[in-house]
Amino acid sequence: MNLSNAKLGHVIFSKSLGYEYGCHNKTRRSLQVAATIFAGQINPGAYFDSLANGSNAVYIDRLYSKWWKNPSSVDESWDAYFKGKSRDFSTLSKPKKKESKPTANASRSVSATAGTATAAPNADWKYIDDHLAVQAIIRAYQTRGHLAADLDPLEIVGPTGHYLSIDDRKLQATRAVLRQHYSYSFNDLNALFKLPISTLIGGNEQFLPLKEILERLERVYCGHIGVEYMMITSFFKSNWIREHFEKPGSMNFTADEKKLILERLTRSTGFENFLAKKFSSEKRFGLEGCDIMIPVLKEIIDQSVKSGVESVYIGMAHRGRLNVLANICRKPIKDILSQFRTLKARDWGSGDVKYHLGVFSDRLNRFNNKNVRITVVANPSHLEFVNPVVLGKARAEMYHRGDYRGNKVLPIMMHGDASFCGQGVVYESIHLSDLPAYTTHGSIHVVVNNQVGFTTDPRFSRSSRYCTDVARVLSVPIFHVNADDPEACVHCARVAAKWRAKFHKDVVIDIVGYRRNGHNEADEPMFTQPLMYQRIRKMKPCTIKYADRLVKAGVIKMEDYTAMVSKYEKLCNDAFKESKKIKTFKNSHWLDSPWSAFFQGRDRLKMCPTGVNLKVIEHIGNVYSSPPPPEQKFDLHRGIMRILAMRKKMMEECMADWSLGEALAFGTLVKDGIHVRLSGQDVERGTFSHRHHVLHHQSKDRQSYNSLQFLYPDQAEYFVCNSSLSECAVMGFDLGFSMANPRTLVIWEAQFGDFVNTAQPIIDQFLASGETKWVRQSGLVLFLPHGMEGMGPEHSSGRIERFLQLSDDDQDCFPDLSDPDFVARQLLAVNWFITNVTTPANLFHALRRQVALGFRKPLINFTPKSLLRHPLARSPFQDFDECSSFQRCIPETGKAAASPDCVEKLIFCSGKVYYDLLREREDHQQEETVAIARLEQLCPFPYDAVVTEIEKYKAAELIWLQEEHKNQGGWPYVKPRFDTTLLNIDNEK
């Protein structure tokens, strides 16, 4: 037999071989060889072949003799092994006298002797070597025991992690041969060994027989739980894991706890069975095969509430969502069942399929009689993209609660096995784990492992052994568990919740089960997984297996289980009858994290002013342009000193450039109690070195100064967060943050506008359509640097056309301009605002308008690059005062405006190209014949302002000018709206 090194870890840990490799011969060398095999130091191929052929340690004697004559005549791994040994191997196979069992005193004396520079002549080398070998075996189980754990309920995955093949079956036959071969050697198993401090399998016992050591290691590491934790570098944390898995009795459950597990499992299975009977042809993405997920979630929440958690955020894809809504959130089952029928919504919004909907609930927890808030965040079909949104929502609630350690807020992520390892947003999201501005102080990840992704088995969907290997980068525990062992699953959930509460680090539970039906209930899985589903068809549901187990153990009677099933089935039937009475529903009833207090008594059509008193402007500007206080002895960069001097000069001139206009917006908002969060790559300085909100000490590490944090004693906080090099996860995070509280301004800035491309799913599925689908408002602002300035086709364009194409305003509908609330109604009706502003003052008002409105919409703002320092892109302070406001369209104010009848061309444009036009018009001396109007807001389209300009220059030729190509930029969007405007003007004539 020839086994490759790749299979070594799985072979040596089989239940049948777990102790035999260490005990097949009465010599000490056998243990040493086994230990080195466990440690992966020698080639096991020839060694295992010799064992299978019936030989014993004599084989090693022969190898040693061969090596002694010619080291190159043996495998290089044996060469390395023998080079490390100084003693003669010729006595290896000679019989030894039976030795007495060691005592604790003997152990201590041997240890003391071994620690000296020159060992005593009578040192018991055999005893020392044997103990070292046993320690190596224990460590091998701790390190690789999970590779041989019995994780697959279907028993179709072999020890290599793939489906059983001919080679795997040969391996199983070889194990049987080895079992027979070593049946005579059990006498050795009674030898006592002192347990090292690196294991807790002995409990209070210091010495155990070898047989008991191996059996306990088998139970702990090769049973229904595979524990990955040895990559954790902290001994304290590793030992904590051992306490909860190795220590005898650590996995025991009381009779009442077992009954509770069965009851929860019954509800989980009962809900799926009921839906299958009543809606057999409907897609529901049921949980069958991983029914234990509900008890696992319940246990996590119960344990977390004991630790002080008051709010839980759950992010998950579609599989099992309805079950979670019913049995975790306790959403009325009648409301869930009503979603299977086509009902008309009583409020606005298109709605979404039932297995994408979110929900918010306050529940009384049975452990402490306190309410716990459970939120399931709405998620589209893009599976894992809800992860960063959940993290952002959780982090925001922590901030607003003052929960700076994550003691009261817990994010739980539910994953699929194929998506967890296949989608990059997972990796981006988990890497936010320990970043100061993005950490949630530990998330609990639960993988519902169906062992298949839609129709693709793991051999073709991942290269790693486990779907969870991507989480190893965090050095946190990963618990693999057999879904058909409810107690093992619940134990993992309990330990995971305790781990997060103690260490505030992520933890992963990989529930290895199966999918009883196809990807959805209408699929035929036998098309692509015939062997798997032949076995699944024969499988008893986990609930029935566990009930039988408890009946045999005398914990319950079969009548008790039958009563549980009947009780829950009656509850579902009653809800089904009630659901038929429901004729309409409200989309808002499926809203996660509602802002009820924000909307109460608020007039959504009221346009609040965005200008401020000039004294406030002056105060903020003076602080912003000043260095840190002298008492801080802050060592500033000379370049920063020049920048501060330039800011001072602007304050004296009462003019604001782009940086100052932005800072004035942030400063006035925090003065009003609005928390401002600016996030993205290199936002502290700004990609184009224009911002410099965070000043760094030049000679001391981790000392910085943000002047906007020190404007007023009672101001809100202003956070500037340099992010990881991620767009998708960080934008999703900031989107989630913006959803938590409406009195927050959250801005995500791209280094260049084109960087937004890698966050497209967040934009498409959440930002552009989230309110329509889920009535979920967000005031998130995107800053996308844009401008055709010779930086290549990528770094020039922020793809304005993509965002405009996603806007939901009607290009053929001309609004009623006589309505005094026209502007507010237009803003309220559209899905987001898209601006391409050209002045610092207009940026100031656009940002303040985000908070001043009686509702929240995303703002997509295309920020400039060259205009950051353009001498004409300045705004006088009077454009910030109480009489000023956001200008959706800035009209011509020069010579052409004074003589409108002389104007031959009226040019509409947007963004930075305006300043290029100014220069061209001046060069050609056409100031009186060419008028230029700037559309600062493209969406919603400012019809009223456009009409005013067109009617003012009645004889002028109408032109739209842009930098971008004809099929890019604003033209595809504005053209039909200009047509609608002109048609309306003609009709009125």
TrEMBL record:
<dbReference type="InterPro" id="IPR031717">
    <property type="entry name" value="ODO-1/KGD_C"/>
</dbReference>
<dbReference type="Pfam" id="PF00676">
    <property type="entry name" value="E1_dh"/>
</dbReference>
<dbReference type="InterPro" id="IPR032106">
    <property type="entry name" value="2-oxogl_dehyd_N"/>
</dbReference>
<dbReference type="GO" id="GO:0005739">
    <property type="term" value="C:mitochondrion"/>
</dbReference>
<dbReference type="InterPro" id="IPR029061">
    <property type="entry name" value="THDP-binding"/>
</dbReference>
<keyword id="KW-0324">Glycolysis</keyword>
<dbReference type="InterPro" id="IPR042179">
    <property type="entry name" value="KGD_C_sf"/>
</dbReference>
<keyword id="KW-0496">Mitochondrion</keyword>
<feature type="domain" description="Transketolase-like pyrimidine-binding">
    <location>
        <begin position="656"/>
        <end position="870"/>
    </location>
</feature>
<dbReference type="InterPro" id="IPR005475">
    <property type="entry name" value="Transketolase-like_Pyr-bd"/>
</dbReference>
<dbReference type="GO" id="GO:0006096">
    <property type="term" value="P:glycolytic process"/>
</dbReference>
<dbReference type="Pfam" id="PF16870">
    <property type="entry name" value="OxoGdeHyase_C"/>
</dbReference>
<keyword id="KW-0460">Magnesium</keyword>
<dbReference type="Pfam" id="PF02779">
    <property type="entry name" value="Transket_pyr"/>
</dbReference>
<dbReference type="Pfam" id="PF16078">
    <property type="entry name" value="2-oxogl_dehyd_N"/>
</dbReference>
<dbReference type="GO" id="GO:0006099">
    <property type="term" value="P:tricarboxylic acid cycle"/>
</dbReference>
<dbReference type="InterPro" id="IPR011603">
    <property type="entry name" value="2oxoglutarate_DH_E1"/>
</dbReference>
<keyword id="KW-0560">Oxidoreductase</keyword>
<comment type="similarity">
    <text>Belongs to the alpha-ketoglutarate dehydrogenase family.</text>
</comment>
<dbReference type="InterPro" id="IPR001017">
    <property type="entry name" value="DH_E1"/>
</dbReference>
<protein>
    <recommendedName>
        <fullName>2-oxoglutarate dehydrogenase, mitochondrial</fullName>
        <ecNumber>1.2.4.2</ecNumber>
    </recommendedName>
</protein>
<dbReference type="GO" id="GO:0004591">
    <property type="term" value="F:oxoglutarate dehydrogenase (succinyl-transferring) activity"/>
</dbReference>
<dbReference type="GO" id="GO:0046872">
    <property type="term" value="F:metal ion binding"/>
</dbReference>
<comment type="function">
    <text>The 2-oxoglutarate dehydrogenase complex catalyzes the overall conversion of 2-oxoglutarate to succinyl-CoA and CO(2). It contains multiple copies of three enzymatic components: 2-oxoglutarate dehydrogenase (E1), dihydrolipoamide succinyltransferase (E2) and lipoamide dehydrogenase (E3).</text>
</comment>
<dbReference type="GO" id="GO:0045252">
    <property type="term" value="C:oxoglutarate dehydrogenase complex"/>
</dbReference>
<dbReference type="GO" id="GO:0030976">
    <property type="term" value="F:thiamine pyrophosphate binding"/>
</dbReference>
<feature type="region of interest" description="Disordered">
    <location>
        <begin position="90"/>
        <end position="113"/>
    </location>
</feature>
<keyword id="KW-0479">Metal-binding</keyword>
<keyword id="KW-0809">Transit peptide</keyword>
<keyword id="KW-0786">Thiamine pyrophosphate</keyword>
